Amino acid sequence: MLERATRVAAVAFGAALVMTIGDLVVGDLVVGSIAVAADLKYPSWKGQWTPVTAPASGHSAAFDPAKPEGRAQHAPLTPEYQKALDDSVADIANGGFGHDPTALCYAAGMPRMMTYEAQEYVITPEVTYIMLGGDDHLRRVNTDGRDWPKNINPTYQGYSIGRWIDEDGDGTYDVLEVETRGPFKGPRAYDTSGLPLHLDDDSTFKERFFIDKADPNLLHDVITVFDKALTRPWTADKTFRRNADPQPEWPEYYCHVTSNRIVIGGEAYRMDADGVLMPTRKDQPPPDLKFFTPMQR
Amino acid sequence: MSYRTLFLAVAVAVVLIGTARAADEPKHPNWKGQWNAVVTPGLVGQQFKFDPTKDRGLGQQAPLTEEYKKVHADSMADQAQGGLGNYPTARCLPGGMPRMMASEAQEYIVTPETTYILLSSANDALRRIFTDGRDWPKDIEPTYQGYSIGRWSDTDGDGTYDLLEVETRGFKGPRAYDATGLPLAFDNQSVFKERFHLDKADPNILHVEITVIDHALTRPWTVDKTFRHNRNARPNWRENVCNEGNANIVIGNENYLLRADGVLMPAKKGQKPPDLRYFEQGPK
User: Fold this and answer.
1) Do A78 and A150 share a structural domain?
2) A286 min Cα distance to partner chain B (Å)
């Protein structure tokens, strides 16, 4: 018995020697020299993750990826915001940009940013970084145990605090629960139809990130939206598939590079390939040129 | 503890050390936190310029070829008239390399395979520097930030990497070093060589020595950009969106201004209005 205890002590002694040597690697991240074995329990979700969209959705970048964008999302909107959606859809059908700020290269913010392609998750004890392949390029989810700041600067993405959970008790965290609050910047929409969030920019989002139990190459982000434009909380299970290519291409996306849309005096216009201004609907008036003297025309 | 037990302990340690070394070899530094660009006070163009110790524009004394000196002069002349000159960032296009490395607040995440540089600039949010030993891809998709491959070195032999050397190729353009339109060559064939390392005397200073090799230059141009570590462990990370507060609007090749009420205004004296050939009605 004593000999066994001594062996255990020897192994512990040997292991302790090692604890003071090498890097502390969480997943694949070097976060310092090894000191706290407990920090090794973070998962590695490395690789490129691409949103899974159902064929029934037309593979659109909708909030609920199982359904098409817009009205077909069946969002539990209040009558006021249902009308805002209807107006947006009608405006888009008429050539306008509707209630879709990203049409003019504004940030999408939460929750639409989580539909973007080519996502990457870099996990550290203090922060989980979510790099996105859309015009919202980055989220920081703070997991350092901080409390909500007294004053939060409004942003489109909001302020996120997360908590890791080892649900199956195997010694490795497997669920990241995140709450994201505003004040947000706005306006924001869930998708290109202009499906609106409330203009008070006071939404709250609760998310659960975890790897699918049956498929380690499938990541879930279950998002619940609390927003005064909704009659009840609205939840969608977004999934992302890991790219099998260990050296995937990371697209550089900046909206202004390709956008041909502009708004002048509240009117939506487009430009042709030569940059010449075009109407977006029949009989649309041209911009007001009152500041250009007749001699200049 | 008997000799046998002591031997066992040492053996366990040796095996684990070997395993740790194999798994972690070699060690990478931890450069976490917020790094703020150091700029010499009182100079023109405080933030976004290539050499932070000189005024922007002509003050940079860039070794431009005669052709690109004229491009720069034309850019500044256009700006003096109200145009945007050769400064794509004014219309919210990405600055790309090397302008992006003048971003005010930066964060470095080091993994064995990739070093991520997160930037506070509205148009340049993220760089990935691949350190996984990959070779240059046969076909690089051109981007404003380029494609970066890095290599870590342990220059002082203390067992921890202390120098990241990076080469970056494969660009989109046009790109400019600063708001005056100080140009890079329009062939977008620039190559950048960078050395990232902490200051030997002050571990709270990060150096980024950048050498530009570009056909708009008569010789390679090197500057030493420095960044100071923010002492606040929970610094503010600003979200910058270029559209906000930007009154410039480009139609065709002409820059106009939008008044607060959305009415189009000329940016230059005597500027022609936009071409309205597609409109059935005449202008208001």
Assistant:
1) yes
2) 6
